[in-house]
Amino acid sequence: MSENSSAAILIIGNEILSGRTQDVNVQFIARRLADLGIKLQEVRVIPDVPERIIGAVNELRAAYDELFTTGGIGPTHDDITSECIAAAFGVPWEHHAETFTMMQARLGENFNPARQRMATMPRGARPIHNSASLAPGFSIGNVHVMAGVPRIMQAMFLALEPELPRGAPILMRTVYGIGVQEGAIAAGLETIQRYYPALDLGSYPFRHGEGWGVAIVAKGTDTAAILAAIEQASELIAAQGVAPIQGEPETAVK
Amino acid sequence: MSENSSAAILIIGNEILSGRTQDVNVQFIARRLADLGIKLQEVRVIPDVPERIIGAVNELRAAYDELFTTGGIGPTHDDITSECIAAAFGVPWEHHAETFTMMQARLGENFNPARQRMATMPRGARPIHNSASLAPGFSIGNVHVMAGVPRIMQAMFLALEPELPRGAPILMRTVYGIGVQEGAIAAGLETIQRYYPALDLGSYPFRHGEGWGVAIVAKGTDTAAILAAIEQASELIAAQGVAPIQGEPETAVK
Fold first, then answer.
1. Are residues B116 and B184 in the same domain?
2. Predicted-assembly ipTM surpassing the 0.90 threshold
3. Residue B75 DSSP one-character state
4. CB within 8 Å: A20 and B252
């Protein structure tokens, strides 16, 4: 039924699990993927532990069409993603000749062993050159290995986009009901969902002043169905005596 | 070696995977867990699909001491977490008598079938009453089932804390080097990490103006080792001709 490829994100890094850092990479990648027409089906966050990385990479690259990893490709001792990807694929981890030569030319005597690690990749890797960092990310098979620093990750993802599969863009449209309680419209929403089984119809309460509101989101690839479902959801909200507020037509990317 | 329990978080919800919503629950839970002395080892985000929920719950509750889920316990058709938890445990999903009576008394004629779902739990569940919502979360075995709305999730987590195991608090301390490049101090950091194998020593570059800085983070339960490792990392930074900036002593909770 779906012409959309599937994808997962693997976030490698103790800094998310410790609560030190607020992840922002998932939302960026999720929105870009929706625009490309790729369905994000899973996110995992794991620590910098070799067997955890190897296991998760092999599980997720088998389960989904594309796997994006973030984190662990810098020059320090805790940057172990690259050699773990090599182990996951069962290939040598070796100097990538083109990248090694380029970084050596640019860094000169500063191209020390730590930085040489960033020119070391699984055999067969394709570098992801980008505008934000001299050291590239890389793709191998259906796995795309990117930095964890958001600015660098974003540049790598944008550089990678032309290589990714495309499907029908995944569109979202939202209608808001301020002061409407989910429990009052749940039966009506279920009826709408049954009528449009190809859509994902979601209901999300949110805080509004001292009270609550609800956002009804219709998501899918069929614009006419989305518009019709949102119209029906608006009528549900209106029946509660509340003026529905429809969001602008939007893809997941704004 | 560790007296710290382990934990995972399972985020159930299409709104994170679509990029519509920026998750903030992971960071809140991660910081509270560090303070309680519980090691967060994994986070997963999955869609509202029964077999995905059941599979992930059973995998994660077996792999870790505690499992926290967020999302999918409201009154609408896409709120399917509760019945999936019952299926994962192989127990009936049934009215929770005490909760049913309490909600009926409070809601009167508004206690419709959709809201009655929120008083329906796996047999054996222990409700998590809280200050933010009439409908409780619940625990069953080592699985703690909470709302996805941050305000409600936080109230549920705080209500749950007295029931959770405690270990030695997981402390973090950070030193910053503005303008220092990771690649220049990588070898020195690796030496420090080898000297303190019980600590997690992390290196995190960050954007600073038009340039970069690096944060060195030492994390663990041994305060003396953390202080000594941060002192050595400060000397590494100073050797680059940069004045190190040590953060205040901090637990992961501030």
1. no
2. yes
3. S
4. yes
